[in-house]
Amino acid sequence: MNDLIIFYGFGHVALEVFEAFLPLLVIFLVFQLLYLKLPRETVIQICSGMLLAFVGLALFLQGVQVGFLPTGGSMGEHLGKLSYNWIIIPIGLLLGLVATIAEPAVRILNYQVEKVSGGYVSQRTMLYALSIGVSVSVAIAMIRIIYGIPLLYILLPGYLLALVLTRFTSPTFVSVAFDSGGVATGPMTVTFVMAMAVGAASGIEGRDPLLDGFGMIALVALAPILSVLVLGLIYERRSAEAEDENR
Predict the structure, then answer these.
(1) Residue 179: inside a domain, yes or no?
(2) Exposed, middle or buried by CB within 10 Å (0-12, 13-18, 19+), for 147?
(3) Which stretches of 169-215 are DSSP H helices?
């Protein structure tokens, strides 16, 4: 009987996922009947893919409810109560790194960037840039929680720096950078790392989980923008050096 606890509330989760998928399915079927006219085999393949996505997302969200959220919250609260709670900073750095590497949306973005750029910007390079950016931002978020630094003191200079960098980076990298900010805040980062941040704020004396625990996702969204913009500057410098050598 205890084995079935992990599926407690799964029907509600599956219903929410179905409600999210239903409009997509309806739109596809309308376009199929009116415009696309795809072969039957292709339609079956697409519908099978949607079914797999539905099952996978429902199971993932159920796992989040019974696994990621409780684990992240318990870890953060326990580490926050330690006398040497600074240890949460390197742990946040590591978790930000591995969460980004495991993020499905990040892999899709990296694949699209490599495909569209014809291999000029590789998937591995993009992954390194995003992972480093997110890991540093999570570490900064933990520093903010421990020492009670106002969120505005970090976000305002960060976005001002991003705006300055857009002036010196090619439009291609600017577009990719701002998309990266949204992609990096995917289910892996939000479900586990945010739960740990809220737990840490709960465990540290004098911290309010509502005021200090949240705001981390804003930092995670900012960091990839900066890292990809810096990557664009590096690529532009390499291109300029290559042109000078060819002259």
Answers:
(1) yes
(2) exposed
(3) 171-184, 187-188, 194-203
